[in-house]
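Purpose: get a first structural picture of the assembly so the mutagenesis plan has something to point at.
Setup: three entries, given in the order below. No constraints added.
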Amino acid sequence: MTADVGNGSAVSARADSPRRGLRARLGRAAHHLLALPSVGWTVLFFLAPLAILLLYSFGTQNLLTFQVQFGWTLSNYTGIFQSLYIKPILRSFELSLFATLACLVIGFPVAYTIARARRRSQAILLLMVMIPFWTSFVVRTYGIYNLVSYNGPLYQLLHALGLVHGYLHVLFTPIGVGIGIVYTYLPLMILPLFVSLERIDPALLEAAPDLGATPTRTFRRVILPLAVPGIFAGCILVAIPATGEYVIPVILGGGKTLMFGNVVSDQFLNLGDYPFGAAMSVALTFALLIVLMVLRSRSYKAEQRIT
Amino acid sequence: MTELSPAVAASGDPARGEGRSAPAVKLIGLRRRYDDVVAVDGIDLEIGDAEFFSLIGPSGCGKTTTLRMIAGLVEPSEGRIEVHGRDVTTVRPHRRPVNTVFQQYALFPHLSVFENVAFGLRERRTPKAEIRRRVGEMLEVVDLQGRDRYRPSQLSGGQQQRVALARSLVLDPEVLLLDEPLGALDLKLRKALQLQLKRIQHEVGITFVYVTHDQEEAFFMSNRVAVMHDGQIKQLGTPRDVYERPRTEFVADFVGASNRLDAKIVVARDDGRYDAEVVGVGLVRAAGVEGLQAGEAVRAIVRPEAISTGAPQADEAKIEARLTDIAYLGHHVSCVAQTESGGQLAISMPQAHVKLEVGDDCTLRWPFDATWLLPAEGGVAPK
Amino acid sequence: MRLRPPRLRSIFTSFVMVFLYAPIVTVIVYSVNKDPLLIHWEGFTTRWYKQAFNDPTVRQDVVTTLKVAALSTAISLTIAVTAALWARRASHRWRRAFDGLTYSRIVLPEVVFALGLLVLLGKLHVPFGVGAIVLGHVVFNSAYATVIIQARLATLNETLEEAAADLGASRWRAFRRVTMPLLLPAVIVAGLLIVSFSFDDVIVSQFLGGNNAQPVSVLILGMIHLHVTPEVNAIGSGLMLITLLTFSTAGLITVLWPTGAGQFLGLGGRAAE
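Result (structure tokens, whole complex):
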């Protein structure tokens, strides 16, 4: 069988084209040179650091001299589970999970409202959701700090409603951090949800009640299943980065090491225990990778079922 | 240097302008492989000056790949390419004296019509005044004067195609290559542009090498055509040659509808014709591909427009059949008839001649001369 | 529709919108509050902005931020364009590996590789400062830029470059006259985006800044710990405005720049024949 491969361009030579002498070979080599900046930089400043962490994670450290011995031990890894840090680490995952769910619960109605809005309103609403996201992340987090501080606006409001007395004990607690995470990542949940919900054919929403479904049932049997890809996408966009959050716990959590990122950096910056810190970093990365792969395969299957 | 194949040597009417000694384009033993797929399988070809030459064939036959090899956009696996005697096989595309009009025009969207046409001239560092003059002239030739400030996106499909043409012609190429340039246009526009292309080629006097899968289009514009299949040239000749004297069943089918009847050669006569026994018809004296032997199984080809109804004459073949379908197509009527031996014949007749209805039995007839004999399978390969 | 009564949903959505903007509003309001302790509203003032503007630390940090952003953007864009051009013609296998590398730079938590870089640079005795920060920024910035530019490059038909070659342009000239102009909007958008990311980055900037280099984002982080003054809010408002402007410009360019890439397919049909 022959193929009229009209696109077999030799403007840049391909791997299977015939060798027409030295010039062609040089041309191909020169082309691969284009990859050098990117690959070079990635290897030197991305892969090498990760490799070093991996290396350190198997080493041991003399606590007095801070000299690191590069042995091959798993003690750092097993040490994670036995240490004091297991609590904040688990809390990290908890917090991320809670934040993701909160984003989902809060974001879903908003996304649905936007999806059902008129075209013009849709554009405006989406813009309104995106604009906070376009302002500085650090400053926004600081804004939450302002908001939930001991006698800040939120306190004033709740105090006026008679719900709180004394001062507001939210800042520097996990709750504060949770609020910060939800606030920061909410747009990232709303957008994919909106995309999924917007695709739902309005005719379906009229057909269901026509066939006798109550609003709750319409929601459960029609809307929810069709929104699943968006739900997965949103969860991935929130849960994965949120677990590795550093800045939000620093600003809203005070000096305490509340989340995984803080625990890890603490090892390096304050305690100087590189091997242990490295092991925790590697463990964190792996945990996230696994979550990511699971979510993506689930999401892929869900997408298959719909289309 | 390979011998020219008999098909090329025997191709009837050679190009005009045999003044120059070297042909405009010469392909020698051209081959192109992709892993284990052979896209172009040995092409030998000579195209003359000021000739409008078409490569036709179904999708995947290798015609576009061949064209792109001439342009230099694809490297041949084997073989040589010469333009006016000069070996350009290893010359990079931007240095070849050939230009291409692409299937989707490939106009630069960020440049105006003027800048598009001037592109190649700017690459040659032509002085500004001369650029202005030559671009202006070329836009007149393609009938787009006054639109030089437009962007491609503001033009219709037909206009874009003409800009692409102007862009290539302004560089005075020795050969112009056209890769199915009219494919994206509607029928009426296509016909109008075919006429324009023919006129422009005649005016400018450059060799055009045109690739298309539309046989009618190629026939309308070309001096000669080459029918390609599976990477090879199956037949090369003037449109008339190819239509009336196809060398293989494939070629016969590709250039037009045809009826095929099984037959066997009885006698190969001295005058070049044959006596053949045609199934359902009887003994027929007809012309055919040369070299057929007595006793050889062949096919008899009859074009639908050669068949009519009514009383058979002395020098006509006849066959009994029953009409199973009649379709009115405007300028003619297309019928299908079933023969006693179970075969089907397609007939094409002017409206006035049709006096029958579906289900009628009738005698179909055609002149012996309108029969053409060729080998039963594949046919004689051009090499 | 039928999910919940529309009014309830609309009210809920409004509350969420308020929630999204409230923190931003507090920062702006606090930045103009006369009360230095931010307990009561004592009137409008631009004093804090003036104070921030004249503060030498702030000025130095702004310069640092600009240096880092400029360097990191220039390097990231170069990396992204060359990488995208290579990837277009790369074989399937290499392409997959390359995409994996790009993707992982975006997905991996910044903390992890920032710490790794900290250790690596420490071992190599590379001094911390603007240079070190740029090294880190480029890692993730180039990934974002690569994705954006690759997406744009994919919409450009290769036939355009073939046409340029056919008309006499060498590969370099074809790149300069055809590919680069068509890539330009994507390059600008990518540039604006990564400038914002640079301005806003805290983790790499803090870990690798050392004693000498402190971008504004790290400054804000520090000031939060030390003392709460309106000045922080003023600086914060300034930073918000800048990032908002760069993102908005990027957004506008994406929407308004005439793409031109797909129009040559003869599907225009605008003018009459």
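The first strand of chain A starts at residue 60 and ends at 61.
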